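To fix ideas at the outset, we first show an illustrative case, written as a sequence plus integers encoding its fold:
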Amino acid sequence: PNSSTMYHTSLLNYMHSLSSCTNIIIVGDLNLPDTNWDTYTGISSFTQEFCEVAFDLNLFQLVNKPTHRGGNILDIILTDQSNITNVSTFPDLPCGLKSDHCIITFEVISVSTLEDSKNLKSYPIYNYNKANWDAMNNSSFISYLTNFNFQT
């Protein structure tokens, strides 16, 4: 609730840096309780400036139900895309977890062509089922990892 000026500046700078980008999706708890997402206005100067930048970037806010027990929409999805569907909020968390925020789910519909896939880099996919877990649980291996300098 009491975000620092440094956070505000950092967030606004990041938002401004997106001006030359497309396919933007921003998801999270931005903690802007004084925002009216129907009119892209806010009470505080920070919220007002944030809304102006979001409006200038042509970002749509897709969460339309309160995501906080206090009745505010704090957790948002901002995007310039129309391929996000099935946005839902769930106030009850699974497994008895407690939070004053709701869970948000959504789907991104992605369409790619064969030509697009030819330009993608390939990355190795590891099969962890074939790992020798007994050897990795060995105390000398754990000692080696504990003392390994990962900084170099």
The first helix runs from residue 5 to 17.
